[in-house]
Amino acid sequence: MYAIGVDSGTQGTKVLIVDFEGKILGRGFAPHRFVEGLRPGESEQDPQEWIQAFDKALQQAIKHAGIPRSEIVSLGVSGQQHGFVPLDEGGHPIRPAKLWNDTSTVEETDLLIENLGGKSGCIQRLGISLAVGYTASKILWLRRREPENYKKLSIILLPHNYINYVLTGIDHMEFGDASGTGLMDIRERVWSKAAITAIDPELEAKLPSLSHPSKPVGLMERDMARRFGLYKVLVASGSGDNMMGAIGTGNVKPGLCSLSLGTSGTVYSYFAEPFVDPQGEIAAFCDGTGGWLPLLCTMNVTNTTGHLKSLFEISNEELEHMASQASPGASNLLFLPYVDGERVPVLPFASGVFFGLNRKTFTRSCMARAIMEGAIFNLGYGFARMKGLGLIPAEIRATGGGSKSRLWLQIVADIFQTPVVTLKEEEAAALGAAIQSIWNYHCSQGRKVKIEELTEKMVKLEQGTVEPRQDTFSLYERLQDQFNSLWKTLKEEFKSLRNS
User: Fold this and answer.
1) Closest CA to 355 of 336, 383, 331, 376
2) Domain boundaries, the chain
3) Is residue 271 within 8 Å of 293, Cβ to Cβ?
4) Structure pTM?
5) Please, what's the b/e burial string for 47-76 (b: 16 or more CB within 10 A of its CB; e: otherwise)?
6) How far is CA 444 from its chain centroid?
7) Is 196 exposed, middle or buried, given 0-12, 13-18 or 19+ CB atoms closer than 10 A?
8) Is residue 110 flagged as an active site residue?
9) Fold agreement (2-242, 250-422+469-500)
10) Is domain 2-242 classified as CATH 3.30.420.40?
């Protein structure tokens, strides 16, 4: 038997065909287009783009796999979080979906936070601090800015839910992706009446009921199965990309951490009980297995090294060689990597800073290493906060473009003081969606299978753990303290520079 894992992201859709032992047999990809001509801060896509891309990527993957279509029995979808897909009574999109990176709803976010009693009120009522990208403010935006469209609103879905809806005809939400809407009490895993009322007292009727992620949505409709050349396929609950990425890295039990080193950086870890940051810096999400998934997200990782590579006109290999010529700590040269502002710590108006340039450190090698270390010190601030709130990390599982750099992995291990491993399969979200679908399939057949049993068998690690070097601990602890002190000292200066 075979499963389909779908990762419908911002840039495109990736599909994996996986057997029930975890062997990946086929792959496919198709890009997404964005709605053009929008105002600054707006980011939208036509939901039909996702369905068309899914079809193309699916056919590629099945052809690549060379398997009988009749033996595909389950399908899981990972989707970009926080999006807003508004449907009318007929189940058709009223307008393009507003995406996670749409920042046009700042005013609506501020209104919701105020109506919920400020930041502390949000955390008290929801267990999470509202961010501009969350779905709640997008719904209020539609009510305030497009009232005629809001009158047509009948069903509210997230991107992965919409794909499930097209496949099954069933509107559905599970705990994981729903926890990123800003409408849910993440402790009790129910819709928050306070958050709903702050938008529209009648809004709850437009939201699907919430379900445990072990419960599938249902069977794919016959017409849809025929369209895609499939047969009797069970559609799993699915979830957001971070939730599915956690499953795809085996992060379904305490002590494991997933780290993504991409343009942005994320760190998240499984918790069996609700995890709430009283300051709201660590996002308090639910996961795709029935637990919780506190998540740290920073905005500056490989974008910083990308700028350096462009400046010096060098490759990834040349960058790593250059940085390795400098000793750990780059001779006390620090780099604040805030090229695109920052989310954690909350520094939206910050910019990048080199601190400690002198005759010794004004070199390509020291600058290169300081930039790589700066991205991890920046993550280190939030990682330390997670540890202070109960995280006991035993192992970090790294993904993303930065995980291909052995030097960067060593820097992570040394600064985080935790062993780091990488994975054989880079498409963790698509793999996680496939694994969750297999779990849902077993559950639907009455089999008591734990998802950790599946991930232990299906998530394959690369050989060779990157161990932290104890002789660097005191150096990096000192530099981490200096890094934190530096951005705190410059916090007000960043604001004044922005306003000047």
Assistant:
1) 336
2) 2-242, 250-422+469-500
3) yes
4) 0.94
5) bebbbebbbbbbebbbebbebeeeebbbbb
6) 28
7) buried
8) no
9) yes
10) yes
Q: What is the pLDDT of residue 491?
A: 92
Mean pLDDT by 10 residues, the chain (500 residues): 97 97 97 94 96 98 97 98 97 97 94 96 96 96 98 98 98 98 97 98 96 98 96 97 97 96 94 95 96 96 96 96 98 96 89 97 98 98 96 96 96 98 96 98 94 97 96 98 97 78
Catalytic residue among 171, 241, 287, 414: 241
Query: Which one-letter amino acid corresponds to residue 261?
Result: L
3-state secondary structure string, the chain? CEEEEEEECCCEEEEEEEECCCCEEEEEEEECCCCCCCCCCCCEECHHHHHHHHHHHHHHHHHHHCCCHHHEEEEEEEECCCCEEEECCCCCECCCEECCCCCCCHHHHHHHHHHCCHHHHHHHHHCCCCCCCCHHHHHHHHHHHCHHHHHHCCEEECHHHHHHHHHHCCCCEEHHHHCCCCCEECCCCEECHHHHHHHCCCHHHHCCCEECCCCCCEECCHHHHHHHCCCCCEECCCEEHHHHHHHHCCCCCCCEEEEEECCCEEEEECECCCCCCCCCCCEEEECCCCCEEEEEEECCCHHHHHHHHHHHCCCHHHHHHHHHCCCCCHHHCEEECCECEECCCCECCCCCEEECCCCCCCCHHHHHHHHHHHHHHHHHHHHHHHHHCCCCCCEEEEECHHHHCHHHHHHHHHHHCCCEEEECCCCHHHHHHHHHHHHHHHHHCCCCCCHHHHHHHHCCECCCCECCCHHHHHHHHHHHHHHHHHHHHHHHHHHHHHHC
For domain 250-422+469-500, the CATH superfamily is ATPase, nucleotide binding domain (3.30.420.40)
